[in-house]
Write a structure and sequence with these properties.
mainly alpha, single chain, minor pseudopilin epsh fold, 3 strands, 9 helices, 52% helix, binds manganese (III) ion, Helix Hairpins, 3-stranded antiparallel β-sheet
């Protein structure tokens, strides 16, 4: 290879290393961002909270943020690793008697890990609003930003038991959708990529808001980081 070809090939390799658009999701979850949920060995890991525990005061109090992140999110990560080990053990020992139990648990715990990770990045202490492509799609799919807010608020407040209100991008219909997720993993539509998630498990609000889930959901709207939601949509559209 002569010098000219060498540089030409290097350029192609260099270009490839920037990653085609289909790999943007892989890039965002692998390069040290908070969405990196798994280490090189395939074990689940929890990144640091992207801000101090008092960053979301007064809407979300420091003690709740600390307990929620450390014990509820952190506990799900530990449990997901155990589920994974138990599935591996069952396969190694060729004993599938209780593998369905661990498979269900893994779905529950890993979904918790995914949603909590997104949840922390969806919140901020400054006022933001949807703009650009996100706003255009909100208006196309829900009529207006106000109508989406009403829709996702009602969906979140009225979940039976524990769960999440979710705004996601559905690639199969190329549209934004609202989901009412029970626990961490139920009532999804296959393929949906979560963009904005609202945790309405009691552990998210009981210290400050007691039994008033409605007040908590209303208090979350002013601290939603719509810039983060917009970035997540941009990535989701590139994956598609
Ligand atoms: Mn939670």
């Amino acid at each position: 290879m002569n010098r000219k070809d060498f540089f030409k090939n290097s350029l192609i390799i260099g270009g490839a290393s920037i990653l085609p658009s289909s790999s943007l999701f892989a890039q965002s979850i692998s390069e040290g961002g908070i969405d990196k949920l798994v280490d090189e060995k395939g074990s689940f890991i929890q990144q640091k909270l992207p801000y101090d525990v008092n960053f979301l005061e007064p809407n979300m109090d420091a003690e709740t943020t600390h307990l929620h992140f450390t014990f509820h999110h952190g506990g799900a990560v530990k449990a997901a690793n155990k589920d994974l080990q138990m599935i591996k053990k069952a396969m190694d020992e060729n004993n599938f008697e209780s593998v369905d139990y661990w498979t269900k648990k893994l779905s529950f715990h890993f979904s918790s890990h995914i949603l909590h990770t997104i949840f922390w990045t969806n919140l901020t202490n400054r006022k933001t609003e949807p703009t650009g492509e996100l706003l255009r799609r909100i208006e196309k799919d829900f009529g207006s930003y106000g109508r989406l807010q009403s829709y996702i608020a009602a969906t979140s407040k009225n979940i039976d038991g524990s769960g999440w209100g979710i705004l996601g991008y559905q690639p199969y219909s190329d549209s934004l959708v609202v989901l009412q997720c029970e626990n961490h993993e139920k009532l999804t539509q296959w393929g949906v990529i979560p963009l904005l998630v609202i945790d309405v498990w009691e552990h998210a609000y009981y210290l400050k808001y007691k039994n008033k889930r409605t007040d908590f959901v209303d208090a979350l709207f002013p601290i939603i980081d719509w810039d983060n939601v917009a970035q997540r949509l941009e990535t989701a559209l590139k994956i598609k």
